[in-house]
Amino acid sequence: MNDGGAKAETLLKVAEIGGRGRSLVAAQSLRAGQVILRESPLLLYSAFPFLSSVSPYCDHCFRLVPSSAQKCQSCSLVSFCSPNCLASHTPWICESLRRLHQSSSAAFADQPSDLQVQARFLLSAYNLAAASPSDFQVLLSLQGSGNNGDSSSSVTDSAAAKFLHSLLSAVCPPLPVPISPELTAALLAKDKVNAFGLMEPFSVSNEKRSVRAYGIYPKTSLLNHDCLPNACRFDYVDSASDGNTDIIIRMIHDVPQGREICLSYFPVNMNYSSRQKRLLEDYGFKCDCDRCKVESSWSEGEEDENDVMEEMDDEDGQEEEMQDQEGDKEEEGEACGNGVDDESSFPHAYFFVRYMCEKESCFGTLAPLPPKTNDASKVLECNVCGSLKEDEVSGN
Q1: H, E, C per residue of the chain
Q2: pLDDT tens-place string over residues 315-360
Q3: Which of 343, 127, 105 is nearest to 228 (CA)?
Q4: Spans of biased composition, class Acidic residues (predicted)?
Q5: pLDDT average, residue stretch 277-286
Q6: Mind listing the pLDDT tens digit for each residue in 85-96?
Q7: Pick from 104, 58, 96, 45: nearest CA to 75
Q8: Which of 17, 364, 365, 41 minimizes the C-alpha distance to 191?
Q9: For residues 354 and 320, is the Cβ–Cβ distance under 8 A?
Q10: Pairing outcome for strands 224-225 and 262-263
Q11: CB of 336 within 8 A of CB of 289?
Q12: What pTM was estimated for this model as a whole?
């Protein structure tokens, strides 16, 4: 972890919150736009299955590879944008990829493509164990996927772990660490709930962006979910600067000391039933945040996000009044949300109007640029498409 992690120690603290487990809360008052955490990945791995077309990204930094890309001469399966990135390609990973690719057509013939990506994660995890045993212990310390009561999901996860353990043990060169079916299952459980996707570049024509790579960020993984988050994640994978795979967490609005800091694990415009289904299937829990408590009583028609978006037009005229209420509501309770809890209307309408990107097919979240003075920035940046917008509401 880089210096951003050290800085976070003064801004955030780990706390146990009933029903939510380990969480990050504000160790002091935090300001809109403030960068509260910058973290480098513990490990990264490609999101491309072995049998897919060749990845257009560097297999280390995951920038788009230039025409002068350097392909590994031994396995010929991965490309790198520079000699420095190529140096990260260890002999064990290289030989493992070569052998897996040779056997993948038969081994994965009747298996979902997700298993090929999970195999990439396990290779990266075992390589981490050999290269940095202390970092491997950090990986093992992370929370694994919980029991969500879905027995079919548990059976699927168990079958995947057994299949991958058997395959890697048989095909790969001698592993750098002793492994067992139990260790393989534990690692896959940690990957399932802690991996962050690094997305492909945004474009209006590409409505559903694919993941180019996955990374494990231990401190960021302590941030819990809320459907009205008070912070959001930025990454700048295609930037030319060092640390392009770092995750940056920036505050959306002011929060007082002691408030839990939360992200949304998906676009905030998703409706109630879709959010609950996604959280239960992917993370093993049911959300009962303030927004979900209100929307759970809505009918199926009322909860459709298109209906909600229509209501936003009606809420625009009330925006100034709601902004005045924000400061008073902010002091109530310790929930993550944005401080606007008008249950007689739409608790997220104000959030949508002010903090959701208006660009077509984007659905990103807006946060102020980092403040350079004592006053918050009046320019908001989208964490998906990168567009900038003048904040029409003065003050936070």
Answers
A1: CCHHHHHHHHHEEEEEECCCEEEEEECCCECCCCEEEEECCCEEEECCCCCCCCCCECCCCCCECCCCCEECCCCCCCEECCHHHHCCCCHHHHHHHHHHHHHHHHHCCCCCCHHHHHHHHHHHHHHHHHHCHHHHHHHHHCCCCCCCCCHHHHHHHHHHHHHHHHHHHHHCCCCCCCCCHHHHHHHHHHHHHHEEEEECCCECCECCCCEEEEEECCCHHHCEECCCCCEEEECCCCCCCCCCCCEEEEECCCECCCCECEECCCCCCCCHHHHHHHHHHHHCCCCCCHHHHHHCCCCCCCCCHHHHHHHHHHHHCCHHHHHHHHHHHHCCCCCCCCCCCCCCCCCCHHHHHHHECCCCCCCCEEEECCCCCCCCCCEEEECCCCCEEECCCCCC
A2: 444 444 444 444 343 433 355 654 444 444 565 788 888 999 998 8
A3: 343
A4: 300-341
A5: 90
A6: 999 999 999 999
A7: 96
A8: 41
A9: no
A10: parallel
A11: yes
A12: 0.85
Structure tokens, 174: 């001698």
- The residue type at 76: S
